[in-house]
Design goal:
This protein is α/β, with parallel strands linked by helices. Helices cover 32% and strands 17% of the residues. It has eleven helices and 17 strands. The longest helix is centred in the last third of the chain and has 18 residues. The protein is globular, with a radius of gyration of 20 Å. The model has no long low-confidence stretch (mean pLDDT 95).
């Protein structure tokens, strides 16, 4: 069954990971000009048939370049992606990895062709570039932030992003997603303080002239903090904090890759489809499902270390995630949406460019534009390339 009467009504978001440009923090840690392209280049086959290294068709580009980003926008828009959700970083000492958005997307002459939104990636930033098998990664930047930092960063978001004509809105309300709710609550000092901070964010958004704020929660990282009695379960937590919807970032947050070193992608598709149904039933809020193109975090591990099943990034890869298998996953998602007409027809894709995690829509030297063409064939069959 593929019963969505108008596939154009479906809104498609691709997560964008901004790890492929020079940043003062990575310069300090790794040397001037270092980017995660260095990890991509050094990827090695770790088991028979392992497809490493991944090689980008467009080359190892600087994503902070306006011209480079204009090509990304054109390719996304031509193939049916409606908006990028940027993984957006801001710690107590300020922003991180912000130039692809600020200097790339926002200055591109064609940014009217694609919407954008933010997912505040408020997780701990740890030293996994690359990770050592024998040594736990050190903490570099804590994800929990103070109320002062939260108010500063949200005011920046309202002033400099929400007001941009390409910012994505739901019913006129700017979409803002939070990656780890328990980090948010932890930094702000508990449930009541978090509710107050989010209420203030809403009030400032309305004061800026918007009908309201659309708060979205990524549901993988929902944990109840020790001693926290305000939340009985994740559904209660997101509702009590005042969120408007929930979504997912990547399949591996919800399913265990059972076979090491390689788990079959079509098996993962079936497991993901079961998760869509469970999540929609568990949460009272609208749930936006996720489709993941692939998974292979091995480039983030030291390549000379033994490849054993010890947890991220020493973990199984998804294999046989061909463009056709990805297309089958998209068809399964389309079927799911058709059976839930009461739900908004919105879904997320992991990812536009998670090259070091093996999940990307950008063209590589093996499959070219085939993953993007799969999106267009399922959801935008009438769309031509500009």
């Amino acid at each position: 069954m593929t019963g969505i009467a108008d596939p154009k009504s479906v809104q498609i978001a691709a997560y964008y990971f901004p790890g492929y440009h020079a940043d003062p923090r990575t310069d300090a840690a790794h040397g001037a000009g270092w980017t995660e392209w260095e990890l991509v280049k050094r990827g090695e086959p770790r088991f028979p048939g392992h497809a490493q290294p991944k090689v980008p068709l467009w080359g190892y580009e600087d994503e902070a370049s306006t011209e480079v980003f204009a090509r990304k926008i054109a390719a996304a828009a031509d193939h049916g992606v409606d908006f990028f959700i940027f993984d957006w970083y801001w710690y107590d000492d300020g922003p991180f990895l912000n130039l692809p958005l600020d200097a790339g997307f926002l200055r591109a002459s064609n940014n009217d062709r694609l919407k954008f939104a933010l997912m505040w990636a408020n997780h701990d930033w740890v030293d996994i570039h690359p990770a050592k098998l024998s040594t736990p990664p050190g903490l570099l930047y804590p994800g929990a932030v103070t109320r002062e930092t939260f108010d500063t960063l949200t005011q920046h978001v309202i002033r400099d992003y929400f007001t941009h004509p390409s910012y994505w809105k739901i019913d006129g309300c700017p979409y803002f997603s939070v990656y780890e709710l328990y980090r948010l609550v932890q930094g702000l000092g508990g449930a009541e303080a978090a509710v107050d901070a989010l209420r203030g964010f809403r009030e400032r958004t309305r004061a800026a002239g918007f009908p309201d704020l659309h708060l979205n929660a990524v549901i993988w990282g929902i944990q109840i903090l020790p001693g926290e009695h305000a939340f009985a379960d994740p559904s209660t937590m997101v509702s009590a904090l005042g969120f408007d919807s929930v979504t997912s970032y990547v399949w591996i947050h919800h399913l265990t890759l059972t076979d090491f070193p390689a788990t079959d992608y079509r098996w993962a598709t079936q497991e993901a489809a079961a998760h869509w149904r469970r999540a929609a039933a568990e949460f009272d809020l609208p749930y936006y499902p996720n489709v993941t193109m692939g998974w292979d975090s091995s480039p983030r591990a030291i390549q000379s270390d033994r490849f054993v099943n010890r947890g991220y990034p020493f973990m199984p890869a998804l294999v046989r995630n061909s463009p056709e298998a990805f297309r089958e996953a998209l068809v399964a998602l389309k079927d799911y949406l058709s059976l839930r007409p009461e739900q908004p027809r919105i879904f997320t894709v992991n990812a536009w460019n998670e090259w070091t995690e093996g999940s990307y829509l950008e063209p590589d030297t093996v499959h070219g534009m085939a993953y993007l063409e799969a999106i267009r064939s399922v959801f935008r069959p009438d769309r031509g390339v500009s």
